Amino acid sequence: MANGFLTTHVLDTGRGQPAAGLRIGLFRVSIAATEEVASMITNADGRTDSPILPADQFVTGTYELLFHAGDYLRQTSQAGTEPLFLDIIPIRFGISEDTHYHVPLLLSPYGYSTYRGS
Fold this sequence. Notes:
Largest sheet: 4 strands, mixed
Low-confidence stretches: none
Number of strands: 10
Helix content: under 10%
Shape: globular
Strand content: 35-45%
Number of helices: 1
Distance between the termini: 21 Å
Structural class: mainly beta
Strand order of the largest sheet: 3-2-9-10
Order of helices and strands: EEEEEEHEEEE
Mean pLDDT: 95
């Protein structure tokens, strides 16, 4: 049984608060195909209510998180003029160990950053 799992959260650095209501998709990526594994919405704390990749579905490999930032920025009146500078933000990363991975997004209307958290 796997011990690993994946969590994420989104902080709205432009407003200085968690990004509630932001849709996130998780995809498993291989040479043959890209498969959607999960789709979740962030809660009031900017986190998903459960791991986006729980231990019972955990497999090492290449993954991609798609953060639907444009929809969130429109909903919070931060979008600016269309087309948006940031809309869907993809973060592709590798999971090579059977452990907890945390991939957060720090978001503003004109920039973002991420890191491997704990």
